[in-house]
Amino acid sequence: MDKKIKIGIYGYGNLGKGIEIGIKNNKDMELVGIFTHRNPTDITPIYEESKIYSSNNIEDFKDKIDIMILCVGSALDLPIEGPKVAKLFTTIDSFDTHAKIYNYYQSMNTSAKENNNLSLIACGWDPGLFSLNRCLFESILPLGENYVFYGRGLSQGHSNAVRKIPGVKNAVQYTVPYDEAINQVKSGKNPHFSSVKETMWRECFVVLEENADKEKIEKEIKQMPDYFAPYNTVVHFISEDEFQKNHTSMPHGGFVLRSGKTSKNTNQLAEFSLKLDSNPEFTASVLLAYARAIYKMKNLGTTGAISVLDVPISLLSSKTKEELLNKII
Amino acid sequence: MDKKIKIGIYGYGNLGKGIEIGIKNNKDMELVGIFTHRNPTDITPIYEESKIYSSNNIEDFKDKIDIMILCVGSALDLPIEGPKVAKLFTTIDSFDTHAKIYNYYQSMNTSAKENNNLSLIACGWDPGLFSLNRCLFESILPLGENYVFYGRGLSQGHSNAVRKIPGVKNAVQYTVPYDEAINQVKSGKNPHFSSVKETMWRECFVVLEENADKEKIEKEIKQMPDYFAPYNTVVHFISEDEFQKNHTSMPHGGFVLRSGKTSKNTNQLAEFSLKLDSNPEFTASVLLAYARAIYKMKNLGTTGAISVLDVPISLLSSKTKEELLNKII
After folding, report:
1. Cis bond upstream, residue A152 (ω within 30)
2. pLDDT digits (tens, 9 = 90+) for B232-278
3. What global pTM score does this model have?
4. How far apart are CA A329 and CA B123, in angstroms?
5. B281: which chain A residues are within 8 Å (Cβ-Cβ)?
6. Omega of the bond prior to B127 within 30 degrees of 0, cis?
């Protein structure tokens, strides 16, 4: 039997936990350890056998880990820590600040290349699988338009913004696409949406502290600049019981649609969509499949930084070439 | 400006015409010629400027064509002609006999490799984009099930079978998936369908010759072994006018769905779907995007036979790496 791919988890939030769970679904992988910035003894992993180490000690694992999966925050942590870890390990991350991806690519590429490592950046579902389909769709249907819809899904950033309002005990925010907007696109009309608020609205479920002022809080949410003011926002007040029962998972999803013409009256519609019970567990599953791919690419000599667009899909599979041609094609 | 990718069309049926149309949508490509088994003077191309040559003369174009797109029949012609053309050109085809793909791969691989050419086999949407998603989905969600639904779409083979019945002047057959079956899959229930007839039915639109026996023909269609007998089949008799108005385009489409679990109670659903006004024009568009990719791969030194699973999606695009990272990821 082939030896297993040795995985390290760097950072232990929702995504890191998703990786810890996901490794169990992939028989060709094993978890070497979880590396945390916190005190390792303060961490309780999901599985008793998972080993917790301090992130200060990653250098000791240089030859014991094949792929280090970076699960620290994308906004503040990855730009600084990514290039450092890429000096020591072949890495994969879910960097998701679209506007800064090219800069991040450059610094990861330098670190990885100089140290003979490979780094797959901006993996997950968006950026990630959605990027793959945006590229595929516009290459196949050059005369057309890409549309992306998010949701129904929990937005962590917007949920946090509501939770910070005094008087709010607990809150979640779901991003919800308008069916009418989706149907317009699917009809092949290639509608123009002047802003994202024409394609989606925001739904909040809020648990109040005792004696909190309902009307004031609803107003405060709806008027919050950037986060809610530009959007159609609906606020529901619910009990803590209902919150715990119905709003503690992290569902998400969305669509990439392309509507394009191949000749004057011939419309063609391509769609990629996800409906996820757990956003972090799915993102983790995508990262693990791509970890398998970059493990193979690294062994074939690829170094530097790459994106999902650079990875042949066959490498994600644990099937042989013959199996793929016989069973998958 | 970069020089254009020089395309040859080998075989001039519906797919060949789709390629002729599709090249106009890709500014980095040009048509060198259409190669036919028939007498070139008997062929009228869609665009006056398209040049028609005899397929006997392809050898004269060895250094004038970058990619030869094989548009001859998949069942009988490709297994014989594919390996011959692959000795002379870098080729792409839509070989679609799933059960024989591995054999076909081997003969194309030998021909292409020995002659320093590259051959992309079994491209299109199924096999092709659907294969890509079957592989992607099962790699990401190893604990799950793939489902494929076809339609609503015109089946050429079944339409021909109906047209051969004496008394039938004209006919089309559409394959239609059952909504209930699709909804069961989308609900995450992972249903088991014991045969394809549980997932789709067949709808025929038939124009009769004068004095033909309606009831006899309906019976003959519904009892036709393999083609219709195993399925729920509905037959409509229509006028030639209605046929010409509503049933002469070649729509098709379908879905690849994967429903899988990442942990005990967490279901994740991924879907890729196509809704096509013209099956041959869309298939041609897929082949052209992949023609761009294998043109680049050939220039980088790849030879032999490959499938869509072996092609990084970035190569399908005419965008630069920086543009892809900035605008697509």
Report:
1. yes
2. 999 999 999 999 999 998 999 999 999 999 999 999 999 999 999 99
3. 0.94
4. 9
5. 262-263, 266, 268
6. yes
